[in-house]
């Protein structure tokens, strides 16, 4: 028997991320099991644990995974929960494959971490290249949603664009309340940019677009 750990957020506001991951991992295990290694067949068992998207809980979950002797771990969902978990998995030599964690610094935390997505710096550098080479804006406005992830990405994009010779004003910040959305929409109409970059969720972007069109 080979145990594969599945660590994700499976409760609370962001449980849909973990639920998608759970379905994917279980489907993959069902398709691949049994696996033949060294002439022997091994069934795959998925060990799933909910870290609730909480770093303190994630640390405990990582310890539980290690005690159950999983061969590797898929997860965790967030950068914060992944970072604290890696310390445990590094100690026990358990490889970690993350489908979500994107902070660049996580890759430097050990030799057991692998990711399935671009890190934040790679993502922003690709966006900056697209803006420079495909859009070439005359007036670009950057907007964050006041969350750490959004602020860091927007600030880094501004830095990369500056290196390309594209200067932008101080980014706008928006908290997704009706009042804030209205104010930002009005400011955008006054500023009259030809390009807007808003680092936020789909529903937040939709709210801002709807208000601006009104």
UniProtKB/TrEMBL annotation:
Keywords: Signal. Gene3D superfamilies: 3.40.50.2300. The keyword Signal applies. Residues 2-214 form the Leucine-binding protein domain. The keyword Signal applies. It holds the Pfam family Peripla_BP_6. This is Leucine-binding protein domain-containing protein. It comes from marine sediment metagenome.
């Amino acid at each position: 028997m080979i145990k594969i750990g599945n660590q994700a957020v499976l409760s609370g506001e962001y449980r849909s991320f973990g639920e998608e991951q759970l379905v994917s991992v279980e489907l993959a295990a069902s398709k691949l099991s049994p696996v033949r290694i060294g002439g022997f067949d091994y069934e795959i068992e998925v060990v799933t644990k909910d870290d609730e998207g909480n770093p303190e809980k994630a640390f405990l979950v990582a310890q539980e995974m290690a005690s159950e002797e999983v061969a590797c771990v898929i997860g965790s969902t967030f950068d914060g929960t992944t970072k604290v978990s890696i310390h445990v998995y590094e100690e026990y030599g358990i490889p970690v494959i993350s489908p979500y964690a994107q902070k660049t610094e996580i890759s430097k935390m050990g030799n057991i971490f692998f990711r399935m997505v671009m890190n934040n710096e790679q993502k922003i550098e690709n966006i900056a290249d697209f803006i420079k080479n495909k859009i070439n804006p005359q007036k670009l406005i950057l907007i964050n949603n006041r969350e750490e992830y959004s602020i860091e990405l927007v600030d880094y994009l501004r830095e990369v664009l500056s290196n390309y010779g594209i200067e932008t004003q101080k980014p706008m910040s928006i908290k997704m309340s009706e009042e804030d959305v209205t104010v930002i929409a009005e400011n955008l109409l006054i500023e009259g940019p030809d390009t807007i970059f808003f680092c936020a969720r789909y529903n937040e972007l939709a709210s801002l677009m709807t208000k601006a069109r009104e």
